[in-house]
Amino acid sequence: MRSFLHAIVFLLVSAGTVQAGYDQSKDWFHARDWRERVRIQFLLVFTGDYASQVDGTFGRLTYNALTTFQKHRDFTPNGVLDDEQMQILQRDGLDLVERVGFETYKDPVSGLQLGVPGKLFEPSTQTPRGHLWRAYDNSIELETLQVSAEETDYAALYKRLTDTSDGRTVEHKQFRNDYFVVSGRQDGRDFYLRMMKTSSDSRGFSLAWQARHAVFMDRVAVAMSNSMTFYDGTDEEKLDAVTSAPGLQVLEEDNSSDPLPKGARKDITGRKTSSSGSGYFLTTEGHIGTNAHVVGNCRSLDIPGHGTARLVKADTENDLAVLQLDSGKSDHVAQFRSKQPIVRGEEIFVIGYPFAQILDNNLNFTPGMISSLAGVKGDSRHFMLTAPVQPGNSGGPVLDRTGAVVGTVVSRLDKFKTLKLAGDLPENVNFAVRGKLMAEFMEDLGLAPSYNTITNIKSPTRIDEEASQYTVLVLCRN
């Protein structure tokens, strides 16, 4: 019995040590800005230590990649890279980048932008669907392609590409509403393909190589998959300028007690006296989810009806933020959709506080539908909705017919910029960040998301009644 108790104590101490190492690694990783985190993950892909999504977020796979990298080079595997280890990571990762000539390539024919190992291929040739690259001995082949929905719809294309007839073996496949991945072997060669879905077509790439190249081509395939994004041949700067964040509406503030002379604050660039957005309770401990742009550069935060709050952390890349009520308590919290993916055409509801200073802080509940599974330039972090979104809606929840959170309102298509660019005024073209990103952000902060396990459809009145108890107005005082 004594030996058994000693074993239990050893396991508990070991588990605590592992968790402490994980937490230390997470803190180190999050201390870097998003671009640096993405760069680290890409370098780990090229060293062969990471084979997952490059998104700048921290999880078990990133932690395992960091510690594996350290083990392979006889460092203490604690998941924290010092300056020497960072230099070695950069040296070893960029070694493969240089050897294969991995560079960004824009293909307007297939509508893709992705990294291509250019040194491995002869010059490409254009095809009706995209471009084709082959190595001088045909041992490696890359093809970009675009398939219209009229020719083959997304689901049918996935079914066709996962067919295991004619000597084709599928070793891995993943299907989502916005993209799918298939890998395996065919005709004696390894293959990897990724296709993403747009409103009118499917587009992606297919990569195949002989087994003797597997030592580096496995890494190249993962890097290409993570680098792939939408491209339509237009000026990216103009596309980026089309969206605007509907959340920072200036409110008036009493400045009679301001110690500075009148007009003295005009030299402070971008200063606003106060602004508003929406948010929703995430935990009973008083955590609130909203957009990063709603709470950026705030001197203080006020949640009317609940008291003051502070910023816990902001994810500026995904435009998400988590706040903490100073009172530290909430009786009602939002629940996220559990597993079922969102689908185009499903009914949703937006709730929040638009035009707070005009509508006297009235809560607004509006129905709509999901019109696209991606945002501008095919950004799979977002989805498009038809529910009207106004200044002040930013940070509010998007709900499905069961009342579960499927997204966070983030932006709308700027009408006047779009008119100048496209010659027409858009109607109800608004965007939300996918709900899973807020849930994952919570987990990274050590918070436990609440999930909705009820699948019964509720009436809009019931959804409004429940959501109004956890949706809040967020006032930012500058």
TrEMBL record:
UniProt-listed Enzyme Commission number(s): 3.4.21.107
Domain Peptidoglycan binding-like: 41-89
Signal recorded as keyword: yes
This protein's UniProt keywords: Hydrolase, Protease, Signal
Any Pfam family: Trypsin_2
Any one of the GO BP annotations: proteolysis
Entry-linked InterPro entries: Peptidase_S1_PA (IPR009003), Peptidase_S1_PA_chymotrypsin (IPR043504), Peptidoglycan-bd-like (IPR002477), PGBD-like_sf (IPR036365), PGBDSf (IPR036366)
Molecular functions per Gene Ontology: peptidase activity
Top-rank EC class of the record's enzyme: hydrolase
N-terminal signal peptide: 1-20
Region span, Disordered: 252-276
Protein name: Serine protease Do-like HtrA
Organism encoding this protein: Roseibium aggregatum
